Amino acid sequence: MHCAALLIMRLGSQRKVCVARIGAAHGVRGEVKLWSFTEDPAAVASYGPLETQDGTQRFEIEALRPAKGHFVARIVGVDDREAAEKLRNLELFIPRMRLPKIEDADTFYHADLIGLGAVTLDGAQIGTVHALHNFGAGDIIEIVPVGSGEPMMLPFNEITVPKIDLAAKQIVVVLPAEIE
After folding, report:
1. Of 56, 120, 65, which is closest to residue 92 (Cα–Cα)?
2. How many Cα atoms within 13 Å fall on the side-chain side of residue 36?
3. Quick one: which of 114, 44, 104 has its CA closest to 72?
4. Tens digits of residue pLDDT in 69-120
């Protein structure tokens, strides 16, 4: 299965991957709600300093504990509710190269798929992988078509995407009309 190891929110030109998002303040001592986008959600604390997409702010997670549907995090230097509130909705990134190597040949980081060519079973170029999304019902691959037209949103599974070839920098896509 093409189970993605990481949900990617945005991939910048500096190859950064969004690994978490800070939510509202939690309590009065500077803790924040934190949503992790890593395969092992608690691993977000072990990736080293996290930063904003533009790299102007860096954060270290001092402590992390599970809560209902998210984590509660203590960030180094954030000591009160007011400071925590200023971080609300901030997305946290790391350089792609800092992510662990994947040993399973059928598992990929979403970041590694962005920009790959999308071809049909017979090799016809149909577009480029623009993004991967998960709105709660499974992964969706977004492909920007060659030329013009609306982006295609397709299920990201073995039926619709039977082959991923990172070396050739392309994925094979079976379009809905071709699925029996």
Report:
1. 56
2. 23
3. 44
4. 899 999 999 999 999 999 999 999 999 888 888 888 777 888 889 999 999 9
Q: Which alpha helices (H) appear in the chain, and where do they start and end?
A: 81-85, 110-113
**What whole-number distance in Å separates Cα of residue 14 and Cα of residue 114?**
13
Query: What domains are there in the chain, each with its CATH number?
Result: 16-98 (2.40.30.60), 115-178 (2.30.30.240)
User: 42-72 pLDDT, tens per residue?
Assistant: 999 999 899 998 899 999 999 999 999 899 9
Neighbouring residues of 2: CB distance < 8 A, sequence distance ≥ 6: 106, 107, 108, 139, 156, 157, 158, 161, 164
Tokens 């577009």 belong to which residue? 127
Q: Which two tokens stand for residue 23?
A: 């939510």
* Residue 64 near residue 44, CB atoms below 8 Å: yes
- Span between the terminal Cα atoms of the chain, in Å: 19
Give the global pTM.
Answer: 0.69
Per DSSP, the three-state class of 36 is: strand
- Please state, in angstroms and as integers, the Cα–Cα distance from residue 117 to each residue in 16, 25, 65, 167, following that order: 20, 41, 40, 12
